[in-house]
């Protein structure tokens, strides 16, 4: 490829999907199961590509393979539930990752928003926006209801479920601006500094 200055730009090397997947696997995540009802069908799928997007309005994002059944179902009218699994729910994660026999602890299975019992949290979402993203579809949902409970979340890293360290204090985030409490702390400090300067 010729450059404007007469130089030559080499074509980027092709990306090996398996190597990229292994690289992405270095990023530890939580584990969710997305559940929904569409008519007489109650469906669930294990997903770790989940993140909060916005607090105002309250939005959350789930990335699903465009070839998946869940991806197709979420494109239909109706809400869905993001179930954030507890560290004791590895079997549930595997059950919905690849259908396996065994009981499922449903809550309100016959209702419009079936969810799972024993999770550390769940969010009931309504479809808000959908975006194409290569071989996946990004489903952004508006959060209509949510609930969290005491517990420790199930983690996923490099194809395994590691345990969360015993000390789960928030001390490591005390100086991080990516949270509400630290921002409020720094704002309060700035206001105090300005007041002190005015008094001088």
TrEMBL record:
<dbReference type="Pfam" id="PF01613">
    <property type="entry name" value="Flavin_Reduct"/>
</dbReference>
<dbReference type="InterPro" id="IPR012349">
    <property type="entry name" value="Split_barrel_FMN-bd"/>
</dbReference>
<protein>
    <submittedName>
        <fullName>Flavin reductase family protein</fullName>
        <ecNumber>1.-.-.-</ecNumber>
    </submittedName>
</protein>
<feature type="domain" description="Flavin reductase like">
    <location>
        <begin position="24"/>
        <end position="163"/>
    </location>
</feature>
<dbReference type="InterPro" id="IPR002563">
    <property type="entry name" value="Flavin_Rdtase-like_dom"/>
</dbReference>
<dbReference type="InterPro" id="IPR050268">
    <property type="entry name" value="NADH-dep_flavin_reductase"/>
</dbReference>
<dbReference type="GO" id="GO:0016491">
    <property type="term" value="F:oxidoreductase activity"/>
</dbReference>
<keyword id="KW-0560">Oxidoreductase</keyword>
